[in-house]
Amino acid sequence: MTWLKSPKVEGNELSWLTEEGSLTERLKKEFDDVAVEVFYEGDFPLDKNFYMREVILKSNGKPKIFARTLVKEDDLEKAWGALKNLGNRSLATILFNSSEIKKTSVFYKELFLDDSLFMYVSSISPTHKKSLWARKSSWEKQGAHLDLIEIFL
Predict the structure, then answer these.
(1) Which of 135, 139, 153, 147 lies closest to 17 in space, CA to CA?
(2) How far apart are CA 67 and CA 152, in angstroms?
(3) What pTM does this model have?
(4) What is the 8-class DSSP label of residue 35?
(5) Count of CB atoms within 10 A of residue 82's CB?
(6) What is the DSSP secondary-structure string of 42-99?
(7) How confident is the model over 28-84, as pLDDT tens digits?
(8) How far out from the chain centre does Cα 36 lie?
(9) How many whole angstroms separate alpha carbon 139 and alpha carbon 148?
(10) Most buried residue, 61, 95, 103, 124, by CB count within 10 Å?
């Protein structure tokens, strides 16, 4: 299945998928407690020309959102250098605090058991669900691009 321009869901799930603001802030409002657990930071294993950061956002100790950020190494040095210094802070502290940064696209996809991304995420954070919704967004700062995939656990 390909990425969609709008998700085929309703209700609370649709509200989370189409959230325009920071998911970290929304989690804080809904669950009061949010922690960012960094799972991986470094070269993207499939292409060393990219830097990758993977985190799980947790509320009250329960995994809520898996997020993968990809940036070309050249763009990391030019515009996205702050990404390397986030530590256990959310990417939202960068994305939503600068007028220079613009979201350029967003797409949605329902991931099923046989999807490699579903399998990968469930190996990190086991789930009993038969499908997970994901959104993929692209961001731009000073001509440099950042791609973000968020999977709702």
Answers:
(1) 135
(2) 9
(3) 0.93
(4) E
(5) 15
(6) EEETTEEEEEEEEEEEEETTEEEEEEEEEEEHHHHHHT-GGGGG-TTS-THHHHTS-T
(7) 898 888 999 999 999 999 999 999 999 999 999 999 999 999 999 999 988 999 999
(8) 12
(9) 8
(10) 95
